Amino acid sequence: MKVLVTGGMGYIGSHTCVQMIEAGMEPIIIDNLCNAKDAVLDRIEALTGTKPQFYLGDIRDEAFLDGGFNQHDIKAVIHFAGLKAVGESVAKPLEYYDNNVNGTLVLARSMRKAGVKSIVFSSSATVYGDPEVVPITEDSPTGQTTNPYGRSKYMVEECLSDLFNAESDWSITLLRYFNPVGAHPSGTMGEDPQGIPNNLMPFIAQVAVGRRESLSVFGNDYPTPDGTGVRDYIHVMDLADGHIAALKAVGEKAGLHIYNLGTGKGSSVLEMVDAFGKACGAPIAYEMCPRRPGDIAECWASTDKAERELGWKATRSVAEMTADTWKWQSNNPHGY
Ligand code: NAD
Ligand code: UD1
């Protein structure tokens, strides 16, 4: 089965392509490489023995997308392409809405023309804002977002829901990721952030490998067991498998399908620091700092719905997340 994968050269997309090939699917990648390197393609080939078809281009270029759909018998689309840095989105809201929201509209229009009406969209737990209760179920309120990135995810969810309300033959799957971390267990593929990492795991990994002196822990006065923020970290390989499970279970069923992809378990910043220290064999230097504006105290997923309806459950532990990240980071200290 041919599946168009937008943003397939990026962190989550590349791991998903590997798992798709292992599962007998044929990913066709579109990426403009604004946040990825073309070396990723060789790494996918080295792991799977298959080099996926790759088209360099932008999802906002409708003629380019139309060409791809004309050339291949695409059955479904997994839509990863987008910009994802929260701080940058505050400084560049127009760029974020254009890429993430407009980009999705152009893609959906091109899909409709080609008669491809199955899409799996990369959404985020950020659409839940600061949750009133944890674990967060899929019917928890959404929309209380705190930044343009989060709003762009919420807006796309709303646009795609409206599309389904108008045209009920679409299969639209919104996957709300919690905190994706980790790397391929081979140590040949992983997250390769440009500049100073915004997120916890890549920052810890760069401290471990000696690229940064110490981690700033943003707040130790949250109402959590050790005072630091608690998140639901999910191994990127589990996340990748979740996409395949979603395609198989609901990709051919008309409907608006919404699932959390998380583990159902929260870990604090200090627990992650400790786990990483064990993985790399040396303690991670850190200092306590004030809270980061916009952060919430704690957030983890209810995983019941995905387990019940997709037959999918995350299985990889925090120890595997840190060990695989360390393998990737130590083998590739400067990324790809
Ligand atoms: P990433 O930046 O590594 O991958 C995104 C890919 O999309 C990159 O390869 C980039 O070059 C490409 N891209 C961006 N804009 C494009 C455009 N207009 N046309 C073509 N290609 C374009 O990010 P990721 O971590 O792999 O995230 C994938 C998706 O998952 C994103 O939509 C992101 O918002 C979402 N998401 C990520 C996280 C996370 O923590 N990583 C959490 C929740 C949701
Ligand atoms: C952030 C984004 C969210 C996005 C997600 C995945 C914000 C407010 N939210 O989530 O929209 O979907 O990334 O890309 O940015 N931490 C430190 N020191 C650091 C970095 C992080 O202590 O240098 C702490 C944070 O305070 C938080 C935890 O680590 O408690 C996780 O942070 P991070 O990895 O940035 O993810 P989120 O904030 O959950």
TrEMBL record:
Keywords of this entry: Carbohydrate metabolism, Isomerase, NAD
Known cofactor(s): NAD(+)
Spans traversing the lipid bilayer: none
Top EC class of this enzyme: isomerase
InterPro entries listed in its UniProt record: NAD(P)-bd_dom, NAD(P)-bd_dom_sf, UDP_G4E
GO MF annotations, alphabetized: UDP-glucose 4-epimerase activity
Family annotation (Gene3D superfamilies): NAD(P)-binding Rossmann-like Domain, UDP-galactose 4-epimerase, domain 1
The reaction(s) this protein catalyses: UDP-alpha-D-glucose = UDP-alpha-D-galactose
EC number: 5.1.3.2
Residue ranges of every copy of the NAD(P)-binding domain listed in the record: 4-324
GO BP term, pick one: galactose metabolic process
Pfam family, one: GDP_Man_Dehyd
Gene Ontology cellular component list: cytosol
Subunit structure: Homodimer.
Protein name: UDP-glucose 4-epimerase
Species lineage: Bacteria, Pseudomonadati, Pseudomonadota, Gammaproteobacteria, Vibrionales
Gene symbol of the encoding locus: galE
